[in-house]
Amino acid sequence: MSHFSLFLCFFLLLFYSILGPCSSQQCPMNFTILRNFGQQLSKNSDLDDNSMDCRYILQGLRLVQSEYLKKSGYFLPPLNSSQSCWDTYQNLVSEFVPNFKIHKNCGFEKNWISQGCMNITSKSDFERQIPNTLLQDVYRYCNQSLADSNCASCNTRLSQVQASYLNGSQVGNVTECSIYPAIYVAGLVNQFGPLDDDTTKCLFSLDLTGVRAGKKKHKGVIVGISVGFAIGLVGLIGGLLFLFLRHKKLKRKKKRVKIMTRAFSGLESIGHSTTLVRYTFDEIKRATRNFHRDNIVGKGGYGNVYKGVLPDGTEIALKRFKNCSASGDPSFTHEVEVIASVRHVNLLALRGYCTATTPYEGHQRIIVCDLMRNGSLHDHLFGSVQKKLSWAIRQKVALGMARGLAYLHYGAQPSIIHRDIKAGNILLDEDFDAKVADFGLAKFAPEGVTHLSTRVAGTLGYVAPEYALYGQLTERSDVYSFGVLLLELLSGKKALTSTTDNQTLLLTDWAWSQVRRGRALNVIEEGMPELGSPEIMEKYVLLGVLCSHPQLYARPTMDQIVKIMETNLPVPAIPDRPISIVAEISDIERSVSSSGSGGSGYLSSCTGYQAFTPEGHNQSSNQRQSG
């Protein structure tokens, strides 16, 4: 009997080892729902752009995952079904794009389809990561039609979820942390489900309207040819003169259409790959009361910023570029792509854009954002706003700026160097949350690459020395600008000022002189209401001085800055600084004399750099306590 039992156990093990894996390998996800999008994928492949195909394939997979989540409650299929799922998807893709191999062309690994973010596999795993109050907020804004402005409101909440609670480890880029909220909303929150046109367009950038529009355009061409032929016959019968005049009129019309088509061609890919709204020029004119002078809220070298109101009552801000021509479309396209490619609670979100060519206004390029009710940081520090900001608000703004820049450097892929950090580009919403704005000068920075620019961009007083002198651009160039801006925020003084004897005064030099003399709190603006603790305020002053250090690698990174602000970590020791490039000869002579005598030197003017030794730092603390 025992021999028979052993034989039976062996047989059962052999049976399950053969049949078990075969039955578990079948893919549980339904890829047939993507068949309607195949025509658009085929259209993309005609452009000979693998990256576009891979993005489209990746978004299609995420749509399938949302449908699978709705059906099963799981984000990911079982690991032993990975190969089956890829094979099923590959077969579908091959129907529309022959010879396109997903693994080879896109670099996706087999196991990635079953391995995601922070070991989250199910609905309950996801909901445990997010506070109930924030989940309720997501349901409120995302459980509706996600067309136009509703889409922007929903995505704003999803970016808050991702930035605050889904920033852990992930495997590959197939199911990265940033897409989990969208899959969750499409599968479980939105009442119309993941296959709704507006839902797929908003959350996954999959759009069937382009396919439908193509069919309508084809029919329109046929109708146009037929009408043109009929008109030609009528013109021929009516007389050669009528035919000649008609021909000239059609020629002028075709020329106008050609110009407008060329103007829009650079933005077609943006409309398909983002949730941006493409406004008509008439909509923009109505929103701004025909660009009324009273609606101007800002001016710059690029043009004016207007406030406006949409038909639903939403207040918006519109940046209208001046001196536009069709040749400038690539740079405009770049700005729109940069802003639309990143989403974070401390980055200004883009609502949409407008391009048009009119007989009277000429070539127009406009971007549309939400209106920030509290204006810019420049308005509060140096503008018409009379009430000074309290310490609590300044601390909140400083942390928001740091988080926004840290996301550009380390959260965006590829990383983005802003290049124009200044008070005018920090906007404040109704709660004084900082929004980093104006990515028009931004540069994509491939990992490990130092960008060398032959054309330095930025604002005088904020540009890092290595960038201004040598064109060397890195993330730490933004750190320098952040340090200058932080000192402006703390002191209420501008980065560059002129003294009564027409000498240029750098805020960074003056702040360093106060720190060097043990008077760091002198940097804090006089008359600031509701001051914070002296230790915290001094910490922020030291951090501003360190970030604006003239030597590149003396500055911390933006993620280090955020950690210092959020925790009790001390500010690292400030390295010695060289003599200022605007120092007077007397300052240089004193510095040389002081160095030769073995001392660290003492600042004799607000423009001189001197060594900041550890002993000096202790001395500074003692003087501050005694003072």
Describe this structure in words.
- The structure is a single chain.
- This protein starts with a helix and ends with a helix.
- It has 627 residues and is α+β, with helices and mostly antiparallel strands.
- The strands form five sheets. It has a six-stranded mixed sheet, sandwiched between helices.
- It is 51% helix and 10% strand.
- It has three domains: 181 residues, no CATH class; 100 residues, Phosphorylase Kinase, domain 1 (2-Layer Sandwich); 166 residues, Transferase(Phosphotransferase), domain 1 (Orthogonal Bundle).
- A hairpin with a 5-residue loop joins strand 8 and strand 9.
- The C terminus is likely disordered.
Detail the topology: elements first, then pairings.
Elements: H1 2-24, H2 38-45, H3 50-72, H4 82-96, H5 102-106, H6 123-129, H7 132-142, H8 149-165, H9 180-189, H10 197-204, H11 209-238, H12 240-265, H13 268-273, E1 277-278, H14 281-287, E2 296-300, E3 303-309, E4 315-321, H15 329-341, E5 350-358, E6 362-370, H16 377-382, H17 391-411, E7 415-417, E8 426-428, E9 434-436, E10 443-445, E11 451-452, H18 465-470, E12 472-473, H19 475-491, E13 496-498, E14 504-506, H20 507-516, H21 534-547, H22 558-566, H23 585-596, H24 614-626
Parallel strand pairs: 1-5
Antiparallel strand pairs: 2-3, 3-4, 4-6, 5-6, 7-10, 8-9, 11-12, 13-14
Helix pairs in contact: 2-4, 3-9, 7-8, 9-10, 11-12, 17-19, 17-22, 19-21, 20-21
